[in-house]
Structure formats: C-alpha cells, structure tokens
Amino acid sequence: MALVLYHHPYSRAATVVWMLEELGMSYELRFVDLLSGAHKAPELLALNPMGKLPILTDEAQVVTEVAAIGLYLADRYAIGRLAPTLEDPKRGTYLRWSLFAPSVIEPGSMAKLAGWAVKPSQAGWGTHEAMLAAVDSALQDREFLLGDTFSMADVIFGGTLRYMLRFNMLEARPLVAAYAERLGARPALQRADARNADVIKEHGLAR
Questions:
Q1: Between helices 128-139 and 106-114, what is the axis angle to 10°?
Q2: How far is CA 130 from the centre of its chain?
Q3: Is the bond preceding 9 in cis, omega lying within 30 degrees of 0?
Q4: Residue 7, class by beta-carbon neighbours within 10 Å (0-12 exposed, 13-18 middle, 19+ buried)?
Q5: At 68, is the secondary structure helix, strand, or coil?
Q6: Model confidence, pTM
Q7: How many angstroms from the chain centroid is the CA of residue 114?
Q8: Pseudo-torsion of CA 83, 89, 94, 95, nearest 10°?
C-alpha cells in the first residue's frame, strides 16, 4: 500500500486519518506507541528527526507536519476537488487559512493557556483576541473557508479548531461551534472518527 500513516489516535495524526478518508484512497495505519517512546526509535527518527507524529510515507516520499501532509495529499491526489488549481483565484485563500492553523491558531492558543509573556508585535500569532477575530472573519457568512466549496483547508483549519475545542483550549464561539458541527456531519470525518476509535479500543487507550 503506497500511503502509510504512522499514527496514534491521540496525536495530530488523527486529523490525517480524516484527510485520507476525504481522499477516498486506500491507506495503511501503523500504530506508534507514544507511551513506550516508540516515536523516538531510530527508524522513526530517520523519517522525522523531530521524533513526532504524524509521519506519512507515499512510497519513497516522506511528509511530516499536518498542514504539509494535507497540502501534499490534496495537490497530488485531489487537485481541483480538495485543492484549488494553480490558476484558481481561491488558491490564495486556501493556502492562507491552511497555514494560519499551525502558525497562528496553535501557538496563539498555547500562549494563552500557558500564560506566555510575549510582545504581540514580535510574536507571529499576535494577540489572542486578534487571532479569534481572524478565525471569525474566515467563517463569517461562509459554509466553508472557500464559500460553499469544501477543501483540504477545512480539514487543516477545522481539524485544528476541533482539537482545540475538544481539549478546552479555545472558546466555542458561535461561528466556530457552528462550523465544527458542519464538519462533523461529513461522512469522511465520521469514518475517520470511527477508525480512530477502533484503534483506541484495540490498544486499550480509552481515557
């Protein structure tokens, strides 16, 4: 099987399962036991020196980082369906919000939660309030980030929001809560949630 995801259901790899289900392609999950430190094993460090999940291999190609994996998969296997083509004017919006998730939402939420003392003008994520306002602006009067068209940007951006909401790292503002509900109705996400749940059960990981 060409597509292999090194996976733990309580890691960001859970979102990559959703990506793969949206593609509708065959893939293999390889469970990585985080509690035993398996993600720091030499063979995993050879794939990702960060020693973190997710790791996706596509034959000889190795891709890490959730946003990079999503952009790679959509461009390679679903261009024009899950990713706007290079000529599509929506391509800029697609890339903007795809990369906003890991570069602003994640660190901005962590900074708020941990009480990091940083100067907003020096931090790439600015203030927490500005980050929330930007998230709302991305969702205002739209079903999805590109309007009425679902894309891989929604998996990256929406997957980040769902993760933050799940662990109470982000306020469930009305636009965010409604967006998360719309995403939750997608059959591919429901299949991904079920597959992650199966892995949790198989390995006795229920919290």
A1: 140
A2: 21
A3: no
A4: buried
A5: helix
A6: 0.95
A7: 21
A8: 100
Give whole-number Cα distances, 84 to 28, 147, 153, 197, in Å.
27, 13, 10, 31
List the one residue out of 187, 157, 55, 78 whose CA is nearest residue 195. 187
pLDDT band at 1; cut points 50, 70, 90: low
> What's residue 124's pLDDT?
87
Set out the domains of the chain in order of their start, with CATH numbers. Answer: 3-81+189-202 (3.40.30.10), 91-186 (1.20.1050.10)
Sheet order of strands, 28-31 included:
28-31, 3-7, 55-58, 61-64
Angle, to 10 degrees, between the axis of helix 152-166 and the axis of helix 66-77? Answer: 150
- pLDDT for 117 equals 84
User: Distance (Å, rounded) from C-alpha 103 to C-alpha 77?
Assistant: 25
| Contact call for residues 58 and 113 (beta carbons, < 8 A) | no
Give per-residue pLDDT as tens, 63-114: 999 999 999 999 999 999 999 999 999 999 999 999 999 999 999 998 888 8
Largest Cα–Cα separation, the chain: 48
Distances from the Cα of 168 to the Cα of 162, 163, 184, angstroms: 10, 9, 17
